[in-house]
Design brief:
heterodimer, A: about 80 residues, alpha+beta, two-stranded antiparallel sheet, two-stranded antiparallel ribbon, 2 helices, 6 strands, about 20% helix, about 30% strand, B: about 280 residues, Aldehyde Ferredoxin Oxidoreductase,  A, domain 1, six-stranded mixed beta sheet, binds iron/sulfur cluster
Chain lengths: ~80, ~280
């Protein structure tokens, strides 16, 4: 089973494209998804990801990131 | 109409009260700069600062700025702010934030979705202010006399930030948790993809700086304010000026608006320059 991970947050620019993609479901969009949160740190950005997110949902968010910060991992 | 509610939040620093509601019909005024100018004129006697997002904000790449207008007896100051405030205003369902008056004591203002506002009084409220809202779904503005910042990085126009600070406003945070509808999902997704692919048409190169919301560029100018009064369509959409080769294009702007369900016509977009010139002339 594949899960969402955030192994390269040192590349993150805080564009939040992942957050909006994660919250886009059919014909609605919100920031309330639990898949990912991008958090501004004193230097750079970090992420909290929901490691129970699987399959297509996780892949979609990975693809949305323009800096390849995110990945899926097999568990 | 799916998303265009034209919700205005008016924050009165004199009384520490706020009023949230749908605004009177503004006809063919699509939003952003046009909306801010209308409100600035209607409330001129209050000498407000107006923060306004555009109809594409929060939905489309590079629709990432906030239009800031400051109205005073000496005229109008106009600037465009980078960062994530635009996205948070959209998902707080606030098209326009009007701030006026002067607080008797220093105050931090915390704005939640749907126009709920907490006034955190006194400088000692700062730690509480920075705990407001939900982690990762909020945007902070901090005002000082010597340079104000959004998200601790993006610069505010000096004079606009200073004016708010002198009204005893030390900080503003907007937290967002609303769900919004997209009228034509397929058109919307295709347009988003097409616009992202057109990143090569930006006037700046991609870099690794902190970026504005929904901008993959992370350009070397992201922290700067934008003042380019000639970009009328971009400023009414409140898209980034560096994306002018993408958005200063009526058919594309129309297609984006249409995918979200806005009722505007081509003629409305073509008439914006004249409308904005007439509104600006009233200051
Ligand atoms: S899409 Fe990538 S670069 Fe942008 S905020 Fe998310 S993790 Fe960071």
């Amino acid at each position: 089973m594949k899960i969402l991970t955030a192994p390269h947050m040192e590349r993150c620019i805080g564009c939040l494209l992942c957050l909006v993609e994660a919250g886009t479901v059919k014909s609605s969009v919100s920031l309330n998804n639990t898949l990912i949160r991008v958090i501004r740190k004193s230097s750079g950005f970090g992420a909290e990801v929901d490691e129970t997110a699987v399959g297509g949902e996780a892949e979609r968010v990975v693809k949305a990131c323009p800096r390849n910060c995110l990945a899926t991992a097999e568990i | 109409m799916a998303n265009y509610s034209r919700q205005v939040l008016a924050v009165n620093l004199n009384t520490h009260e706020a009023e949230y509601g749908s605004y009177a019909d503004l006809g063919r005024n699509i939003g952003g700069l046009g909306f801010a100018l209308e409100l600035g004129i209607q409330h001129r006697e209050l000498e407000p600062t107006v923060l306004s997002i555009g109809p594409l904000t929060g939905f489309f790449p590079f629709a990432s700025k906030v239009c800031l207008l400051s109205v005073s007896s000496s005229g109008l100051t106009e600037s465009y702010l980078s960062g994530s405030l635009s996205l948070m205003l959209r998902f707080a369902q606030i098209d326009c934030l009007l701030i006026y008056g002067t607080s008797k004591q220093p105050v931090f203002v915390s704005v939640h979705s749907g126009g709920q506002v907490d006034f955190l009084e006194g400088e000692a409220a700062e730690p509480l202010f920075y705990k407001s809202g939900s982690l990762g779904r909020r945007s902070f503005l901090a005002f000082t006399d010597g340079g104000s910042l959004a998200d601790n990085y993006f610069k505010l126009h000096d004079e606009i930030g200073r004016r708010l600070y002198r009204r005893n406003l030390l900080g503003l945070v907007v937290s967002a948790d609303r769900t919004l509808n997209i009228a034509k999902e397929k058109d919307y997704s295709e347009l988003c993809r097409e616009i992202l692919e057109r990143g090569r048409d930006l006037e700046v190169s991609y870099s690794n700086q902190p970026s504005c919301a929904l901008c993959p560029a992370g350009c070397n100018f992201s922290k700067e304010t934008e003042e380019r009064p000639e970009l009328v369509l971009s400023h009414c959409l409140v898209t980034c000026g560096f994306a002018k080769n993408i958005y200063e294009n009526v058919p594309l702007a129309f297609a984006c608006l249409n995918s979200l369900g806005y009722p505007f016509l081509h003629e409305d977009l073509e008439g914006l320059e004249k409308m904005v010139a007439e509104l600006r002339a009233q200051f």
